[in-house]
Write a structure and sequence with these properties.
Elements: H1 3-19, H2 25-48, H3 54-65, H4 68-89, H5 92-116, H6 123-151
Helix pairs in contact: 1-2, 1-3, 1-4, 2-3, 5-6
């Protein structure tokens, strides 16, 4: 078996894994890491057993990794573990802290804007406009978080 055939077999394996995973940047990173791991394992085994057939060596490496389905399931489990802190952040304390910090920033920015313009922009008008944008940001961020959760 030539090195080109080994590369094709690795490509087929990677493509099988890719079909089972969501298409995002993390998946691309995972696939690149997986390819590097396969090549490294293959080269290690090849240096340990130079007389063995390359087909047997690459088959052994891929069997040791597991099936593409097993890799995809493991990846999804890891993603679920990473998402659990997001759910914890939605606690009452977290939301109260975000609202408090937002209110302080709005009031401070409105005060500064009012004084920088020598009173041409009303303090309360600036506070209302900034509050609108903060609420809009909360809505958009929640929508994006929910959309990300659904796509996984």
């Amino acid at each position: 078996m030539s090195d080109e055939e080994v590369g094709k077999e690795i490509d087929e394996y990677i493509q099988s894994v890719e079909k089972l995973l969501p298409g995002n940047f993390e998946t691309i990173d995972l696939l690149e890491d997986l390819r590097a791991h396969i090549v490294e394992s293959y080269n290690d085994k090849l240096s340990q057993m130079p007389t063995k057939d390359k087909r047997i060596i690459i088959s052994t490496v891929l069997q040791d990794l597991g099936s593409p389905k097993e890799i995809a399931e493991e990846y999804k489990k890891e993603r679920a573990k990473e998402e659990s802190p997001i759910a914890e952040r939605k606690s009452v304390g977290y939301i109260a802290a975000r609202i408090t910090i937002s209110a302080v920033v709005i009031l401070l920015a409105s005060y500064i804007l009012h004084h920088l313009t020598d009173g041409n922009i009303d303090f309360f008008f600036a506070a209302i406009v900034m509050s609108f944008f903060v609420v809009l940001e909360f809505i958009v961020r929640g929508w994006l978080t929910e959309e990300r959760r659904v796509s996984r």
